[in-house]
From TrEMBL:
One GO term (biological process): negative regulation of DNA-templated transcription
Upper lineage: Bacteria, Bacillati, Actinomycetota, Actinomycetes, Kitasatosporales
Domain HTH tetR-type, first and last residues per copy: 25-85
Keywords noted in UniProt: DNA-binding, Transcription, Transcription regulation
DNA-binding region residue numbers: 48-67
Protein name: AcrR family transcriptional regulator
GO MF terms held by the record: DNA-binding transcription factor activity; transcription cis-regulatory region binding
Length: 236
């Protein structure tokens, strides 16, 4: 296939354009933006080289001259949305508060681009915008008494909490939209069933627990507490 390298190659190490010849018709930013528009509108599975080429108004085969593999296209997409972080000129000095703020930004970004959790992987971790994000995050942790490896571990754990939590929120919302009844009706039916089972007396611990706290669950509070416990574990 045209443009496909015979050996492993990182898209960022590949020149965007050759030193000679005509100026390319499209930039990587153009290609990434087109792919992101498709994914946002139709989901990640709808993204294909053919669709991106059609969005740009070019032939599918010519697109491979810019992006050799679909995996490269995913990298361009993740880099594009990672450029949306609002990174201050310098951290506030409160590393916990700054990490929490970044986590909330990441969660909001994933809700804007619901396909992102599916692509979160170390394979897509070395693009320009992601590296800028990592450098800023490490600057937040300058005041933390920890080795580099521990700081990277902390960043990975925070990202893991955010990705897992947000992916579950997205999946729940998508399931609710697919139901032939309202979310409230679904919740009521499941709650009534749960109450009927607890009333049998077979589940005394659940009965005691729900008697103590019957909800509703504070999902925002759960998110912050989960992150807080991760951050707590790295404080000396």
């Amino acid at each position: 296939m045209a443009g496909r390298p015979p050996v492993p190659e990182v898209i960022w190490a590949r020149p965007e354009r050759a030193g000679r010849g005509p100026k390319p018709a499209f930039s990587r930013a153009d290609i990434a933006a087109a792919a992101v528009r498709i994914a946002d509108a139709e989901g990640l599975d709808a993204v294909s080289m053919r669709k991106v080429a059609a969005e740009l108004g070019c032939g599918t085969m010519s697109l491979y001259n810019y992006v050799p593999r679909k995996e490269d296209l995913y990298e361009l997409m993740l880099d594009a949305v990672s450029g949306g972080y609002d990174l201050p000129d310098k951290p506030s000095g409160d590393w916990r508060a700054d990490m929490m703020a970044l986590a909330h930004q990441a969660r909001a970004m994933m809700h804007r681009h619901t396909w992102v959790p599916r692509l979160m992987s170390p394979v897509y971790g070395f693009s320009p915008n992601v590296l800028a994000y990592m450098e800023y995050t490490l600057s937040i942790l300058d005041g933390l008494d920890a080795r580099f490896g521990e700081k990277m571990e902390l960043i990975a754990m925070v990202n893991g909490v955010v990705t897992t939590y947000t992916a579950n929120e997205i999946a729940t919302a998508e399931r609710s939209r697919s139901l032939p009844w309202t979310e409230e009706q679904e919740h009521a039916a499941r709650t009534n069933y749960l109450i009927s089972q607890i009333m049998t007396g077979k589940y005394p611990r659940l009965a005691a627990g729900f008697a103590e706290d019957s909800g509703p669950i504070d999902l925002e509070g759960v998110f912050d507490r989960a992150l807080g416990r991760v951050l707590d574990s790295f404080e000396r």
